[in-house]
Amino acid sequence: MQMKQIEVFHAVYSTGSVSNAAKFLHVSQPAVSKVLHRAEDQLGYLLFKRVKGKLVPTDEAHSLFAEVSQVYQQILSLQKKARNLKSGTAGHIRLSVMPALGLNVLPLSIARFLEDHPGVTFDIQTRHYDDMIRSLYEHEIDIGLAFNPDNHVGLARYEFGQGEFVCVHNPESFPKNPDRLGLEELEGKNIISIKDSGPLSDLLFQRILQEGVSTDSAITVQTYYIAKNLVGYGMGMAIVDQLTAQAEGPGKTSFKGFTPPITYAVTGLYAESRPLSNVCQNFLGYLKQVYEELVQPAK
């Protein structure tokens, strides 16, 4: 049976008459009758008999309807899915995110997005920079959210925010309590070191090298959040991104920006060969709005 024949047969069987089926399908009665007769000719048997002026399904029609009904529902589901994909209200988003963005920005963005787009599903992975880039090239993810990413052949970018490095410290570390710090004020300080975390750590290292600042480092960690928490336990100072500095953690800490600021881009990366779906584009808009709301200016 052809698609149109399935649609007409389902409508006539469900509504009980050609006239009702025509109204349901928004077509003329002759059009319904023509499609129904053609289906019966192709099948080689009647689907309905007229008994006392009414259409009565044949045994063959009863047998077919169970299967046809399943197909019909699948067609409706497919049509709905196609409409939702066009409008960006349904779909699946595969994300890889740097840990700092997973603290508050990403969870709140997803929560707000799903309130407006309940038909969307997410697959979220926390990965370091190199693994994220590999996943994009191998099409394991749709979007990679990163700080200050390098330019990569075949990857496009959507910049949705700016951030800056800040120094997280004990409130008594700087008695004069300046609004901002010069990197030279960290000379000889016990700074918790961050193991290579990609372009962001490269940016910081280059700036420290340019300023000729020498610091002591007894502890090296892999994430800015661990470094920030170590500061809370009195283990020294740490230079981290703004989002990590704002996150809750042990102890009492403060954070200050630098003069001049050490800034970085907050960016979504995706493969040029696989343009973003409508639902992914919509989500990036939510992400941008939440980031702008949550990031606190460094003093």
From TrEMBL:
Query: Has keyword Transcription?
Result: yes
Asked if the Swiss-Prot or TrEMBL record annotates the protein with the keyword Translocase, the reply is: no
GO BP term (any one): lysine biosynthetic process via diaminopimelate
Report TM segments. none
What residue stretches are annotated with the HTH lysR-type domain? 1-58
An MF annotation (GO) of this entry: DNA-binding transcription factor activity
Provide this UniProt record's keywords sorted from A to Z.
DNA-binding, Transcription, Transcription regulation
Recorded hits in SUPFAM superfamilies, A to Z, give: Periplasmic binding protein-like II, Winged helix' DNA-binding domain
One family from Pfam that matches here is: LysR_substrate
InterPro entries reported in the protein's UniProt record: LysR_HTH_N, LysR_subst-bd, WH-like_DNA-bd_sf, WH_DNA-bd_sf
The entry sums up its family as follows: Belongs to the LysR transcriptional regulatory family.
Tell me the protein's name: LysR family transcriptional regulator
